[in-house]
């Protein structure tokens, strides 16, 4: 029943979208071309109305195809509002650009570009409003118990409990768990109102009744040998089956699969910067950004050079071995902020509050992050990036890799001058575990927009470091 309802709903949704597209187009034509509300040039829009209406016969199917391509007809049970709005903007932007390119290619100079711009904005606004209304109606309907998906779970495990927790916390998804089948937990056992109904072999009796919309396989790790048997039973019944693995503490939230000549391979962690194009774009931004920053901060660096020379003997630049991309060591540059000391003594110790090794001017540089500015040359060389996890010394890398789970994942990307952890306050003498959590979030969710956001926040949060000693 749910599947049939979903088919009718998608068809209805396509029809509604077609009406919205047509209404947006006609409104844009009426106000811009017909009434001239948004312009006063009589030479614009001189084409007859029939030409504009004929174009609509191409616009509607093309935009509906774009909506399908941008996943705007997937189930609203799980797709978030922000993602849906983003997809609406992307689809309309692509449609608008393709339309402009098409007019240019056919040398059509009289078709009103202003009208297209009004249509572009109007259509996005109406689509967002209409879809918000549809989402509200569906959520209200699901909360009232109508058109809900009936789910049976196979296997009692940690994954099963977390699956139930999320369904109960989100009634707007419209899911109802009818029960659990398990061979090792006694029938009648309850978890948050969901009962263990019996053994897994009861599937042979339950499935032919055809009263379920989905089967969720939530076996414990020690029962995966039965997976093939259970999937075969579910496939014979035609019931949609999903697999909820019981190793979410091993595999993160964004694994991805690859097809190795018919053999599915699960990649444990999705790293956007492993994509050549993404890495190339980030590197271009790093080169351009480091050159601009070197020019902008050259007066500050000159001030630092004079301050170091006047306050303590020793070299201006301090070179320290850090671990970078793919665990390769590199020499990181900093303005010297401490008294010169033996390398063996320095490399195994962090600075502490009121550390006697830090010079007076060095303390000021550390507090304002001026000592980090020479790393702009590391970025230009390719050892570092403007944004990324902060690099650590080899001694501490070896120490933390044994103490902190997933610590070494940070070395799958170039280390950065600033990062997500730093703008969230995890600098200097702060929790390493929380810092790594921030680094992992950055690595798995990288976008160029996130980099720009971090750089922007660095100007307000990142330079003054209250935890720097």
List keywords for this structure.
469 residues, 6-stranded mixed sheet, alpha/beta
Walkthrough of the structure:
Helix content is 50%, strand content 12%. Strand 1 (149-154), helix 5 (158-169) and strand 2 form a beta-alpha-beta unit. The protein has helices at residues 2-34, 49-69, 81-105, 113-143, 158-169, 203-206, 227-237, 276-296, 298-311, 343-346, 360-368, 375-381, 394-403, 420-423, 432-444, 448-462; strands at residues 149-154, 175-181, 190-191, 194-198, 214-217, 240-243, 256-260, 263-267, 317-323, 329-335, 385-387, 416-418. The chain is flat and about 85 Å long. Mean pLDDT is 82; it is low at 40-45. It is built from 16 helices and twelve strands. The strands form four sheets. Strands 3-4-2-1-5-6 form a six-stranded mixed sheet, sandwiched between helices. Helix 1 runs antiparallel to helix 2. It is of the alpha/beta class and 469 residues long.
Category by helix and strand content: alpha/beta
The strand line-up of the biggest sheet is 3-4-2-1-5-6
Shape: flat
Strand content: 5-15%
Number of helices: 16
Largest sheet composition: 6 strands, mixed
The amount of helix comes to 40-55%
Average the pLDDT over all residues and give the rounded result.
Answer: 82
Order of helices and strands: HHHHEHEEEHEHEEEHHEEHHHEHEHHH
Number of strands: 12
Using the CA coordinates, give the radius of gyration: 30 Å
- Point out poorly predicted stretches: 40-45
Measured distance between first and last alpha carbons? 65 Å
Secondary structure elements and pairings:
Elements (H helix, E strand, L loop, with lengths): L1 H33 L14 H21 L11 H25 L7 H31 L5 E6 L3 H12 L5 E7 L8 E2 L2 E5 L4 H4 L7 E4 L9 H11 L2 E4 L12 E5 L2 E5 L8 H21 L1 H14 L5 E7 L5 E7 L7 H4 L13 H9 L6 H7 L3 E3 L6 H10 L12 E3 L1 H4 L8 H13 L3 H15 L7
Parallel strand pairs: 1-2, 1-5, 2-4, 5-6, 11-12
Antiparallel strand pairs: 3-4, 7-8, 9-10
């Amino acid at each position: 029943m749910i599947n049939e309802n979903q088919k009718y709903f998608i068809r209805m949704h396509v029809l509604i979208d077609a009406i919205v597209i047509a209404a947006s187009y006609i409104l844009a034509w009426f106000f811009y071309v017909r009434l001239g509300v948004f312009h006063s040039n009589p030479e614009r829009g001189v084409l007859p109305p029939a030409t504009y209406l004929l174009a609509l016969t191409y616009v509607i199917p093309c935009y509906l195809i774009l909506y399908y391509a941008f996943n705007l007809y997937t189930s609203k049970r799980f797709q978030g509002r922000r993602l849906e709005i983003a997809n609406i903007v992307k689809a309309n932007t692509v449609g608008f650009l393709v339309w402009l390119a098409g007019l240019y290619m056919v040398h059509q100079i009289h078709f009103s570009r202003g009208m297209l711009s009004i249509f572009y904005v109007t259509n996005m606004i109406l689509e967002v409003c209409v879809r918000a209304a549809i989402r509200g109606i569906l959520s209200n309907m699901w909360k009232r118990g109508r058109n809900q998906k009936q789910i049976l779970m196979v296997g009692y495990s940690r994954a099963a409990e977390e699956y139930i927790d999320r369904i109960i916390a989100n009634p707007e998804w419209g899911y109802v768990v009818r029960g659990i089948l398990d061979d090792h937990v006694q029938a009648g056992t309850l978890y948050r109102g969901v009962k263990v109904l019996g053994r897994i072999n009861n599937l042979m009796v339950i499935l032919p009744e055809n009263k379920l919309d989905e089967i969720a396989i939530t076996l414990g790790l020690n029962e995966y040998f039965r997976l093939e048997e259970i999937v075969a039973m579910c496939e014979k019944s035609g019931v949609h089956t999903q697999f909820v693995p019981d190793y979410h503490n091993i595999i993160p939230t964004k694994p991805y699969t690859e097809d190795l000549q018919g053999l599915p391979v699960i990649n444990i962690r999705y790293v956007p910067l492993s994509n050549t194009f993404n890495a190339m774009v980030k590197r271009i931004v790093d080169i351009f950004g480091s050159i601009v920053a070197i020019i902008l901060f050259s007066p500050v660096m000159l001030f630092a050079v004079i301050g170091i020379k006047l306050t303590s003997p020793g070299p201006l630049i301090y070179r320290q071995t850090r671990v970078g991309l793919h665990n390769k060591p590199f020499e990181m540059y900093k303005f010297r902020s401490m008294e010169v000391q033996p390398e063996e003594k320095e490399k195994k110790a962090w600075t502490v509050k009121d550390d006697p090794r830090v010079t007076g001017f060095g303390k000021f540089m550390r507090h304002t992050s001026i000592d980090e500015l020479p790393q702009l040359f590391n970025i230009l060389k390719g050892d570092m990036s403007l944004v990324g996890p902060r690099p650590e010394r080899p001694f501490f890398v070896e120490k933390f890799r044994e103490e902190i789970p997933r610590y070494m994942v940070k070395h799958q990307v170039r280390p950065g001058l600033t990062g997500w952890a730093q703008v969230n306050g995890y600098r200097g003498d702060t929790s390493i575990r929380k810092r790594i959590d921030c680094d992992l979030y950055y690595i798995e969710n990288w976008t160029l927009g996130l980099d720009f956001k971090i750089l922007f926040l660095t100007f307000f949060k990142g330079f003054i470091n209250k935890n720097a000693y």
